[in-house]
Design a protein that fits this description.
Layout (H helix, E strand, L loop, with lengths): L9 E5 L4 H12 L3 E6 L10 E5 L5 H14 L5 E4 L5 H4 L6 H29 L3 E6 L28 H18 L5 E8 L8 H4 L2 H10 L8 H12 L10 E4 L7
Parallel strand pairs: 1-2, 1-4, 2-3, 4-5, 5-6, 6-7
Helix pairs in contact: 1-8, 2-4, 4-5
Length: 259
């Protein structure tokens, strides 16, 4: 039998093709978990001993199909990492309408977290309980108007409509509500609030040398975080080491919000 902090546990990770989600898949496998990795497309490279499932977290039928697959193939589910998420610039690839961009970001980041949790909780409960980890952001904790990257607002009149911070702020509140509601059911619900992490989500910023250096200076630790460091936090929340935590936010940001 595999040894590790998650030995004997079954975990579902959404947004698993890249970034934080992919790092969680890799970390959980190393700790003995059986992992179902889901994303809206199939990954270019598949890790061994991982079950890959295509899932659009904004579509009820798609989410229910993945949970049904887990129940039929594994018979149990103990851990969820709700890592699927997008920024406005990703939604802007498909539309230039500000309202449609806003709706899509809220739909993926907030509704997706809700749908996966809602449809998975009965299976987690019947499996004896477990842990749900939502990936939020420090942007849900601080004021962060659109156009701020680079050190100054580009458009004072049209700024402030970035859907990403409100979507992540709502995830933090959703985590608190669900954590309290499920506390007596043996299901812990916590979230991680990462700072700037080296993922595709901020590639547009880090690919520019001047902006990248500016971002690093914003952090007391003088650097941007790694996806593996967030996965370490997710491991802590998924394991019994965090057995007395629920409804909480774990901030991993290199000191950004401590200033």
């Amino acid at each position: 039998m595999a040894s590790g902090k998650l030995s004997g546990k079954t975990a579902l990770v959404t947004g698993a093709n890249s970034g934080i989600g992919k790092a969680c898949v890799d970390r959980f496998i190393k700790e003995g978990a059986k992992v179902i990795a889901s994303d809206i497309t199939s990954p270019e490279i598949k890790l061994p001993n991982v079950s890959y499932q295509i899932c659009d977290v904004t579509e009820t039928v798609s989410v229910k199909n993945v949970i049904k697959y887990i129940e039929e193939e594994y018979g149990e589910l103990h851990i969820i990492v709700n890592s699927a998420g997008i920024a406005p610039r990703h939604a802007a690839v498909h539309t230039s309408d500000p309202e449609e961009i806003w709706d899509r970001v809220i739909e993926v980041n907030l509704k997706g977290t809700y749908l996966v949790s809602y449809h998975a909780i009965p299976l987690i409960h019947s499996s004896g309980g477990g842990s749900i980890i939502n990936i939020a952001s420090i942007m849900g904790m601080i004021g962060y108007p659109e156009g701020w990257e680079g050190g100054a607002l580009k458009d004072q009149v049209q700024s402030g409509y970035n859907a990403y911070p409100p979507s992540k702020g709502a995830v933090i509140q959703f985590t608190k509500n669900l954590g309290i509601a499920q506390a007596q059911n043996g299901i812990r619900v916590n979230c991680i609030c990462p700072g700037y992490i080296e993922t595709n989500l901020i590639k547009a910023l880090t690919s520019d040398t001047e902006r990248s250096e500016w971002l690093k200076k914003l952090h007391p630790m003088g650097r941007i975080g790694k996806a593996s460091e967030i996965a370490n936090g997710a491991l802590f929340l998924a394991s019994d080491e965090s057995s007395f935590m629920t409804g909480s936010s774990l901030v991993i940001d290199g000191g950004y919000t401590a200033q």
